[in-house]
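Onboarding guide, step 5: your first structure request.
Type a short instruction followed by the sequence, for example:

Predict the 3D structure of this protein.
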Amino acid sequence: MNYAEMFHWLIAKSADVVVGAIDIPVEEATRFGVIAVDEDYRITRFDEKPAHPIPLPNDPTHAFGSMGIYLFRTQALREHLIADAQEDTPHDFGKNIIPRMIEEKRVYAFKFQDANKKAVHYWRDIGTLDAYWEANMDLVTVDPQFNLYDADWPIRTYQGQFPPAKFVFAQDYQGGRMGVALDSIVCGGCIVSGGRVQNSVLSPNVRVQDHADIRESIIMGNVTIGEHCRIRRAIIDKDVTIPPNTEIGYNRDADAQRFTITDSGLVVISKGMKLHAAVDPSG
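The system replies with structure tokens like these:
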């Protein structure tokens, strides 16, 4: 989204607040904050995850879902935050702040305009771990809907001063080590040292050691994956060292004893968690 266009909308409507909105089929809108608007796109109501979403005035099959993107005039926001802070509320934008501002201020919806050059508009609600994982897996497809490589619409974000990613060992024979990454995104500072990474996202400064195998996973910064590890469908947070010969994502019962498991069976390892090396029963 080009936020300059959202700002121009606020000026054009003399609005106090503008809320980013996206068309959602009515039957799916129960999972979102739903915005009711008049024909001028002024918001008349804001319902958080309603059982019966209010459809758009000109399209009974769709509703406006809040994207969680807000643009405020500073003074209007300040006075409502102060007022809400003095009341016994959850202090939530969707449940408290926005509904009250609708009653007292000029609050408008801005229809999502995708700057990404794809046939389908791209927006993801990543409010759950499973949704976050799915959004990252979107990025490593051959032709992702969300294009990080569009030179005409670059993604601006912080880039640390890391050396280029490195892939070492090319022992292309039976039992040899191959440092490879396939259908993956690998950030700077990573070293894939004789291991295999596939359909995964590696954050900066990740180390993948000999014969480790990583599939469909998100690996955060400063993580080390030990030799002969097997990891599948996992999110591993920052500063974790996975000991050699560890298996994650292959035995749900065993994983559930140590880690968080999502509804879909995704394994989540929290930041800085200390893992113990597997014990060899043979001694």
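Each response can be followed by summary notes, for example: Helices lie at 3-12, 74-85, 93-104, 129-139, 252-256.
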